[in-house]
Amino acid sequence: MIVDVHTHTPTHRDAVPPSERRAYDRWRPDRAVVTTNSWADYDEQLAAADVSIVFNIALPDPLGGTGIPTDPARINESTAEFAAADPARRIGFLSVDPTAPGSIEEAERCRVELGLRGVKLGPNYQRFDPLGPAACELYRWAERHGLPILFHQGTSPIRDAPLRYAHPLTMDEIALAFPQLRIVMAHMGHPWQRDTIAVIRKHPHVYADVSALPYRAWSFWECMRLASEWGATHKLLLGSDFPIATTAETIAALRDVNAIVEGTALPRVPEEEIEAIIHRDALAALGLERPAPGEASDARGDASPPAGGPGDATEETR
Fold it and tell me: Is 0.85 surpassed by the pTM of this model?
């Protein structure tokens, strides 16, 4: 089974009208990324995955300069509706701003009424202290209910997103305080992959995903080789960061990670470790069960977002 742990809820249910098409040229260094996308676009670009985890992020406004449409009132509803449309292949995560009034109540509503099964946070984008009391209250709630949290980790071209809020070493402190909380550190915390490796090898329930890494061939090889040397590749999970990349593109890049050192004496990332990442049972690692077809609850199953209308933001930066 192939599980893609890092995808973003499509912005539109139906085909994106030409007037609403948006692209952004700073998500990855090799090309611009179309940031408005449909449910059909998602299915096409996630075809290589058997199951995917999908989420929005609770932002009050669009990310500066990206042109990504955002509807704060539908951050979680649009994810729940999308996940419910194909419950055997999609698992939805909720997002809240821990510092907002009623954030725990909203998280509980998403868990109970919307059936969302994990949490997505981007402290740098949401501009909250990941070690502050409000954030810790949310971690405590998630740990109590067995919901994993996927954190944006690492750099960002968004000028007003504080980098210190997304540094991997903050995850060490969170894992120490909440040892049963299952955590995914997105993007291996690039460019601080070494710090991420130190954290994931130390804590049993802390993992990292490999999304947003393959477009920088040298640092991709280096961090994968370091993870192998430190015995930490078993803590790495497959993630595409749709719409930034596709599942198939990410798998192909993993299998080609050693190409940059061909013809040199530099060590290779073992092929068996690469294949293990591609086929890892991330759901088991995160304490999630694969839903059966038709499992969607009544609360989600009859809902649908506005046809062709913008949904919520894709927020990750590379």
Answer: yes
